[in-house]
Amino acid sequence: MIVLAGTIGAGKTSLTTLLAQHLNSKAFYESVDDNPVLPYFYQDPKKYAFLLQIYFLNKRMAQLKAADRVPNSVMDRSIFEDSLLFHLNADLGRATETEVAVYDSLLNNMLQELPQQDYHKRPELLIHINISFATMLNRIKKRNRPYEQITQDASLYDYYQTLNQRYSQWYENYHESPKIQIDGDQLDFVTDELARKRVLELVDQKLNTLHQTTAVAGNQQ
Ligand SMILES: Nc1ncnc2c1ncn2[C@@H]1O[C@H](COP(=O)(O)OP(=O)(O)OP(=O)(O)O)[C@@H](O)[C@H]1O
Q1: Which is nearest to 212 in space by CA: 204, 163, 202, 44?
Q2: CA 148 to ligand 1 centroid distance, Å
Q3: What is the mean pLDDT of residues 61-74?
Q4: Where is the Deoxynucleoside kinase domain positioned along the sequence (predicted)?
């Protein structure tokens, strides 16, 4: 299982599609437009932050179980980032300490579920698409989901900025699996054919290295 990571508008969904095609495998998407809680969350984050996380956690666990059965499956967001987003929301006063404690413990419990398959919960590779704050704002504007627009709610500017900053730190501290970072400002794999090729090359190289390491480890046993 390969998982994509990155802030809002980083291009996770698009790269998931590209990679699944490239690897001749299956893509697993978190559908955003039919998320019943998201518009409410943006309207009243304090009231709906906890419910939104429970919604995402439930969906992602189901997705993980389905993706686990497919070789080389590609997922459009990692379960680990939900925690990053929830902790940011909690720090902004949108969730109580108790809600955070309950969420953290539930996440932990769920990740330990099916212990015989525990290693499958850790992806083979995490791909972080790193974009600057300016690119993030452009993409959000261009995509035009009403509830994400800063013109609707000026406080979103700070939320997005902090989220973008926390992602860099989060990636540095991520050690659940092998990882690779793609420069999403430089490599616009959605519109630029050459960039697309380069990104797929980078991923192939990393996967080859990982497969070689696994083969060597296997031979030594
Ligand atoms: N765990 C979470 N907590 C709060 N909001 C979340 C969480 N996960 C996703 N979101 C929200 O859901 C929406 C979709 O986010 P996400 O980054 O997954 O997809 P995206 O914006 O389509 O990204 P991409 O363009 O990279 O595919 C955003 O408004 C984001 O803020």
Answers
A1: 204
A2: 10
A3: 88
A4: 2-205
Instruction: Give the pLDDT confidence of 14-64 residue by residue, as tens digits.
Output: 999 999 999 999 999 988 888 999 999 999 999 999 999 999 999 988 888
Region of residue 114 (phi > 0: left; psi between -120 and 50: alpha; otherwise: beta)? left
Closest CA to 75 of 96, 61, 88: 61
Whether residue 99 has its Cβ less than 6 Å from ligand 1: no
Give the burial class of 98: count Cβ atoms within 10 A of its Cβ; 0-12 exposed, 13-18 middle, 19 or more buried: exposed
CATH number at residue 82: 3.40.50.300
**Percent of the chain residues past pLDDT 70, beyond the cut:** 93
Q: What range does the domain containing 139 cover?
A: 2-220
Catalytic residue list: 76
Cβ of 80 below 6 Å from ligand 1: no
